[in-house]
Amino acid sequence: MNKRILIVEDEVNSLKIFSNTLRRHGFDVHTARTAEDALQSIKDSTYDLIITDIKLPGMSGEKLLEKIKVTMPEIQVIMITAYGTIESAVNAMRKGAYTYLTKPVDLNLLVSVTRDAIRSQSEDYYNAVDGKYQFFNIIGKSAKMREVFSIIQRVAKTDANVLILGESGTGKELVARAIHYSSLRADNPFIPIDCTTIPAELMESELFGYEKGAFTCAYDNKIGLLEMAHRGTVFFDEIGDLDLPLQKKLLRFLQEKEFYRLGGKQKVKVDVRVLAATNRDIEGAVQRGEFREDLYYRLNVITIGIPPLRERREDIPILAEHFLDIFARKNRKEIRGFDQEVLRVFNSYDWPGNVRELENVIERAVILCPYDTITLECLPRKLKELSGEGEPEEFNLMEIEKKTILRALNKTAWNQSQAARLLGISRKQLRTKMKNLGLLT
Predict the structure, then answer these.
(1) CATH number listed for the domain at residues 311-391
(2) DSSP codes joined into one string, 111-164
């Protein structure tokens, strides 16, 4: 299902460019020219993300943000601002905006930030410890995750650089956000930078900004992502993919905490905390000369290793329930839980895509499920095959019969007449078997 985005922009050309770019990347894009029109659209339809300019005719984008956060606080909002209204954009982030982009907007960055914002739409990073198994929306009760929570709490109040290691989909950005929003910088910007999505030739200008006339098409000054993060936190996601020339420039910045914008003659000094993450064998990359050793040691003051999901299987049921609750509410469906066979399959699968893969499987299952319980038929084929359907794992006839009857009942939302027809027996025979098997009192 394509994610629905509403873009609010009064400049026709910008509106067309933004909407066409996001449509090409598979988003379902809708537009509005004013905040008032946007509010009406939000009343009539549901959206996964709002992208709005700060300066609009009539009601401002900042005021629009306030109204959205009152009525629908779970929806992420990205602000777009001209160079002269950076302060307004930072204020907007304090009021709940996901992040802001400066004009002229880099379209690759727009797509990247849009994806990040939608992925985190239903995540609440601003709560403190929430219950026994949740810390800043990181779910887990396993010993390995409790250790991660402990390290986050110990390093959050410091300014130490942190290197977060883990496979794709384990939640490295969640950990980075938890550190930021537990820190003394929590009221200031958190700026994520995905080193895999910004082209190498654009990365330097995105990081450090540029002055008017620095290169062709540099028609105005533009501040970079490091400057945007002043007094806050910058998070380099997949730092292991950063080009070597940029690694050298980043190292210099980490040492001096100042830099020149491209084409600039005055040093810009910023106060930021640096967090970084990678799914690569970063020590191996250092040994192969693919990553600077001095930068590695500069970043690696504190290391947090995020375990893959297959190494914390006791967290799978609570993660599954968490995602089921989110997607059932989002899709307005009454689904109360999982068939036991589904949970068995979840526990036996190795989850190469980790928590992100589990989340995607459950979102798909919720959308496709016609029952009030997630059953095997709602899962992708590779997971169904793990269930051993048609190949009983045991020779206990009563257990096999019980599982078969439960599958038929779950498939028909426990309609006994329909289940009996699926099984090829009468409703009376089905009820007798259910009583004998303890499924009916």
Answers:
(1) 1.10.8.60
(2) HHHHHHHHHTTT---SS---SSSEETTEE--SHHHHHHHHHHHHHHTS---EEE
